[in-house]
Amino acid sequence: MAGRTESLQNITMSGGGAYSLATKGAEDVINAATQIVLEALDSINISENQDLFTFSDMGTADGGTSLKMVGNLINAIQKNNPGISFNIVYADQPKNDFNGLVQTVLGLGHFPSYLESTENVFPLFSANSFYKQILPNNTLDFGFSATAMHWLSGKPCNLSNHVHMVGADGEEYLRFSEHGKKDWETILLHRAHELKQGGQLVLLNFCRDENGKYLGNTTGVNMFTNFADIWQDFLDQGRIRPEEYRNMTLPQYYNTVEEFSAPLKNSESSVYLAGLRLKNIETRITPCPFAEAFKDHQDAQRFAEEYIPTIRSWNESIFFGALDIQRPLKERKKIIHDYYQTYQKQVQESPELHRMDYVHAFIVIEKI
To answer: Which residues, in sequence order, are CB contacts of 341 under 8 Å at separation 6+?
Structure first.
């Protein structure tokens, strides 16, 4: 989910609809935000004679996690405007699995689609990321994104002793922080161009909340520290090389509430001057669905086998891309297989310590 630097990064979610199957928690986040979406929708002035409503889902992956929410939005509008048509614009970076996305949206994949029960709805697919302008100026009624905008437009630097910015410090942390600030402003400025006056944005973004909690760090084992520890063990064992350890740096940044809010509140910022205003921001923790299910079934093996795929779905391509391409493909695949098997064994041995709760900032923005 990046711009011109995408060719330098190996960021891909699991394809063929596997992403949404593995990331039930990401769908839970969107479903929990449906009421926020509908409330933001109520503030848009949709006239009786408006013949087209344009909605975008940015950083959509395979589209499965937002299907129910999009269907609810369409139904809410059509109750009052039965003749209105919809452009539903699905956007993601060029490496996204667009075949899987099309299959999902058309109802040919693993999930039923809103297209089966709606009329005058036209899905469109864009290989532009949110680091570029996706739609023409003043044409977007409602923009949406969930669990995507933590991916940076590029990697600021490799980290010396960790795999994620939550474990960085000193100059390395500052480089990630500055890059995250610029990327957030870039995202917002493009949306300011696209949105109509009165248009709304609902963005559900990973964050570090008021208590210092973030994805996989709410209780028990810190997921990102565990990533780094296992990767370090592989280095100590000679399974990977020092440069491969450093290359495994996730190009992500988790903003705080203050960092998200700053360009939307500062009257001198380019974002504020472009017309965007912060209507509301709040943080929420969505429980890990696999850890919650474990409380009932108490099957440690089942939990481990369900939990690890949700992790792999969004970071396996980064781990694999960190390995030296001069290594034989079979050898690289073996390293990655063993890496996740190591993690899975830890989960199975101590299931009560592992969970990937989602920590999001739910953000509502309006263009005045």
So the answer is: none
